[in-house]
Design brief:
The complex is a heterodimer of chains A (about 280) and B (about 375). Helix content of chain A is about 35%, strand content about 20%. Chain A is an alpha/beta fold and about 280 residues long. The two termini of chain A are about 20 Å apart. The C terminus of chain A is likely disordered. In chain B, helix 6 runs parallel beside helix 9 and helix 9 packs across helix 12. The chains are: A alpha/beta (about 280), B alpha/beta (about 375). Bound molecules: adenosine-5'-triphosphate and magnesium ion (MG).
Amino acid sequence: MNQEPYIRVKDLSVGWDGQAILSHLSFAVRRGSCFAILGGSGAGKSTVMRFLIGLEVPMAGTIDIRGLGSPSDLDGKPGFGVMFQAGALFGSRSLFENLALPLRAWTDLSEASIRLLVQAKLDLVDLGAFADYLPEEISGGMNKRAAIARALVLEPDLLFLDEPSAGLDPITSVELDDLIRNLTRELGITVVLVSHELPSILSIADDCILLDKESEGIIARGDPRELQRESRIPMVHDFFNRSSGSTSQHRTIAQEDSPMHEQPDREPTGPEDES
Amino acid sequence: MAAPPTQPLQIRVDTSTSEPCVQLGGSLTIEDVDPLLKGLMASLPGLTDLEAVDLDLSLLQKVDGAGVAALLDSIAKWDTSGISVRFRGVDASLQRVLNLYSDRLAGKGSPRPAQPEGVFHRIGLFAVQSMTGIRDAFDFLGHCAVALPGILTHPRTFPWRDLPLLLQRVGGGGLGIVALTNLLIGMIVAFVGVLQLQRFGAQHFVTDMIAIGHIRELGPLITAIIISGRTGAGFAAELGTMKVSEEVDALRSMGFDPFRWLVLPRLTTLLIALPLLTLVGDYVGILGGMIASLPMLDMNMDAYLEATARAITMKQFLLGWIKTIPFAVAIALLSCAQGLATSGGAEAVGERTTRAVVLSIFAVILLDSMHAMVYAMLQI
Ligand SMILES: Nc1ncnc2c1ncn2[C@@H]1O[C@H](COP(=O)(O)OP(=O)(O)OP(=O)(O)O)[C@@H](O)[C@H]1O
Ligand SMILES: [Mg+2]
């Protein structure tokens, strides 16, 4: 795995309607790694992703992808694949058309090759038999899988996935984790993943940041397995060791020593070898 | 075996002893919330001098979440007036319910900022909104202008394949209602015209009135208004739905400029369809006029048609027809802009659709009156 940062975020502030909900976010994503953005519901994970892919202009700070600067100019062949939290498939087009659209626009492939490639991607997520269905005619989980297939269809080397496995049954979810792991390990694709499915994070993420709404920033970063074992910060510990015990006590304690050791410019350390 | 019937809520306040006590008994469920709040409120004056009070819950037979939430809310009020509360008679299961709500009460997190009230606030708000509205409109026009040359550099991000379908939907789909409306308007004008002109013995000029009135004013206007309601609403609702379901964001993330992919094809479609529909509207309107007026005139059909043909000059026709271009631009851009400005949920889509129709119709009428004024000034 390469050590050079692929995405470098410095002092980023994100928010809505001129109001920042998270500020001074700094982190780096290594090429070929799987990077997880974690946090509770409403912490701003999807918001951060929207800024990373250039849908919104940063309120402060910079985003740099591949050393080419911010992705704000989206006109042209996309440099990455994106899966939105709700899928965001085009409702008036069949799954085939949804996947064929970027291929038609950004490649010179013949219609026959397009057909083949789309089918291959749909097969990859077990939706081979549903090419002619409209998004509304398949289930929510199937929509998500189709959206992942669409994100992959141009063979991007960078992938943004917003909660790919949320709402899927355990078996499909594990299969999906395997798929994502293979994408990074075998094909060297860099994956930025939003999630709060602990098992899947622990099995696929090399690196992570944990966002918190109250402290409006990153409260933990590093290898998720390491954080699970070693973090002494109550909120982080809670997140990774979700016990049923009372969290409210921890919450008040956590608030007191909340602005935790942020190290904006810290270069992420290499992942621990899994054992 | 039937469980013993639950007693209604009882509140007993005892401040006579050295250990003042409020005792609740019976049931504390969603039905008891009002009596509870009233009862505790009533007991508050008697408690104001106290520093602490015991709250005895041992006699409660039945509780639910609503009852507990209301109770905790009242206790929080006592707390703020300086009375601390000691719970008594709380068993394990009741403790769990209490914990469930006590952790979450008093709305953690920031409340939504209050909406401004008052006349001046609203006037100010309106002014700001109109200013941003105008700025947004220019923003939108700018985006469209920027997206246009992209057709040359990225020709495949313009949905050529969708154009025929769009044309069919806008043109073919709108044909029936456009024809019917124009027919009826033509007839109405004929009825009124014949009757009024008869008073001066000039009823034969009704052919001129119908023909010129329709091709120059009514045909383009009526058609554009119908299309505002039909197609403008359709565009706004479609784009609005795509916006709220993040389809527009997905498009952008895949390198498709929404203006090129969504707005320009719709503009193109209307620029083709509206002039054609207006042609049909003109024709059918004059037909309607004839159907209505012919029986009221001592004229045969040939003479009527000849008179009509004489009245219609190329100039009159073009003066009317040319207006369909600005109408089409206004309807397409206004409704697409409203669609893309949608944020929120289903309600927002409805709101934007309504606004798209209102704005389109208003713009059409405004443009028409501007044309009329210019024509009048030029005496054409
Ligand atoms: N379109 C929007 N307009 C205004 N505010 C928004 C919008 N989308 C999200 N927010 C706000 O941003 C905050 C973070 O939302 P976001 O969707 O990023 O959370 P999240 O971490 O992805 O949560 P979840 O895990 O539930 O998806 C929320 O408090 C929400 O109120
Ligand atoms: Mg989200």
